[in-house]
Design goal:
Radius of gyration: 31 Å
Largest sheet: 2 strands, antiparallel
Strand order of the largest sheet: 1-2
Strand content: under 5%
Shape: flat
Order of helices and strands: HHHEHHHHEHHHHHH
Number of strands: 2
Length: 282
Amino acid sequence: MDDAEKRRLEDLPWKHAGYRVFSRWMASDPAFFIVRRFGALNARVILCLQDEIAKHEEELDALDRHFRADALPDDTNNGSFRNDPCMERKKLIEETLRGKLAKYNKFINGYAQLVSRPPLNPIDVGLVRQWFNESRPAAIDDVEANYIRYDDDLVPVQPKTRSWFRKRLESTYLLNTPMMRPIFGREPPDYRIISDDRTVWQDDKRIEMFSSLMTGFVGLSMLIGPLWVLAYVTKPHTRLGIITGFIVLFYAAVAVATTARPWESLAATAAYSAVLMVFFSR
């Protein structure tokens, strides 16, 4: 981007940036693609659809009561769809209720998928706010950019999975330092159009690979470290204290740094403990 284009973006961002740049910027990384789920509005629409179906349910109940009346002939057949004596009831079920229920079920299933998405990373929300407030201020009308302030109503369109170690890295802003940017950064396809002085695009594959290596290193240290320590300690109480300490550290690491459930963490810790006790008995 040349200097003249930068000046145009800075002087008239609503004209030269606007949604043309913001939409490309948002699509450049899953972390930026955040929208509102409109929880209250969805709930209201669902309740409205529910009430419409409930009214038709009352109509159906009224028809059923009418055609069970003692005044009607004994051969009135309420046990057949094919020979239903009430065409109004048949039409209500086959046309009205079928369509209403299909719409209701589809709407609820769609919303259920929306609310089941994993929670947002506050860092991602901060990056979008930074774009509105600092990177390209006034590029989007305030009233339209205000959606990012509804913290409890935001969802990620494409949830970005992050390992525990990567979350810790991002919380320290280590990846954004000038030394780390060339290693763990990348340039998206529209970089020339969407680049600014603040946004850093991360290379997810490299970062996750680095996180996996570091996690593996810590895991191996937890396995090899106590073996070397126990080799130079002879007192039983001291050896038992060392083993206890490593077991507690191992459980904490599994519980915090992985997605294992509590009983899975305990099972892994039990196996780890068994290995250490073998060396304790020697």
